[in-house]
Amino acid sequence: MGYIKFLGTAGARFVMITQLRASGGMWFSIDGVEILVDPGPGCLVRAVKSRPKLSPGKLDGIFLSHKHLDHSCDINLMIEAMTEGGHKKKGIVLAPYDALENDPVILKYCRDFPEKVEVIREKGEYTVKSLTFEIPLRHRHGVETYGFKLKNGKVPVIGYISDTSFFEELIDGYRGSEILIINTVLYEKKEGVDHLSLPEAEIIIREIKPKKAILTHFGMTMLRNRIWEKEKEISDRTGVDVIVANDGMKFEF
């Protein structure tokens, strides 16, 4: 029924700029609908070099959670690729207001290429063909940031918690997610940093109890602690099957 391809699992600045992990974002293929999420640096290259190859011209939409470069660097490239250089008006782009109007990262000349560019807001619902994006709440991050719950009635509800500091409302906001993807930058909690740590991600997982939880978007401390070796420990602590994503991983459901 569908899959998620992880075109990159780099989180925050230092893993991105060193490319210790790739930073291409995620490609969702659900019920024949193709969606790109957070196209960071190298997204286009990772897509066309994927095996099997992912064709950007087949995209139906692009979701941008926020405008930081590790999430948005390739968005103009991917808009052009989705629309075949602007020659084929197609696809929907979903992005926060400040990614479009306040120090924008989506160039104005690209905005006429898709069928529609929509501003996402807290509690909003947005449709791309048969898929509905529900925006549970605004995240607490340095810029306007949102995740989503993705639904179509045929596949499990997919929640995506993008960059944010921890706050209790995240749990109720993403409750009901059957597959939960969490950007987990830090191995241990660090005051004053607006990213989730592994202990905070575990709290969210234990409370929501999805069928599967996938951790991605790793910072340096996660790599130094070899997070990919700790899947079983995290699964045992949370009581949920937890997957630590890797570059190029294809998760089918």
What can you tell me about this protein's structure?
The chain has helices at residues 12-18, 43-48, 69-72, 75-82, 97-100, 169-174, 198-208, 220-224, 231-238; strands at residues 2-8, 23-30, 33-37, 61-63, 92-96, 116-120, 125-128, 131-134, 148-151, 158-161, 179-183, 212-216, 241-244, 250-252. 23% of the residues lie in helices and 26% in strands. The chain has a single domain (2-252), classed as Metallo-beta-lactamase, Chain A (4-Layer Sandwich), CATH 3.60.15.10. It is α/β, with parallel strands linked by helices.
List key phrases describing it.
alpha/beta; Metallo-beta-lactamase, Chain A; 9 helices
CATH architecture verdict:
4-Layer Sandwich
Strand order of the largest sheet: 6-5-4-3-2-1-14
Classify the secondary structure makeup into a structural class.
Answer: alpha/beta
Number of helices: 9
Q: CATH class, anyone? A: Alpha Beta
Q: Give the count of structural domains.
A: 1
Taking pLDDT < 50 over at least 5 consecutive residues as the criterion, the unreliable ranges are: none
What is the CATH topology assignment? Metallo-beta-lactamase, Chain A
Can you give the mean pLDDT? 97
Gyration radius from CA atoms, angstroms: 17 Å
- Tell me the major beta sheet: 7 strands, mixed
Alpha-carbon distance between the termini? 6 Å
- Please identify which CATH superfamily we are dealing with: Ribonuclease Z/Hydroxyacylglutathione hydrolase-like
Please count the beta strands (DSSP E, at least 2 residues each).
14
Q: H/E series, N to C? A: EHEEHEHHEHEEEEEHEHEHHEE
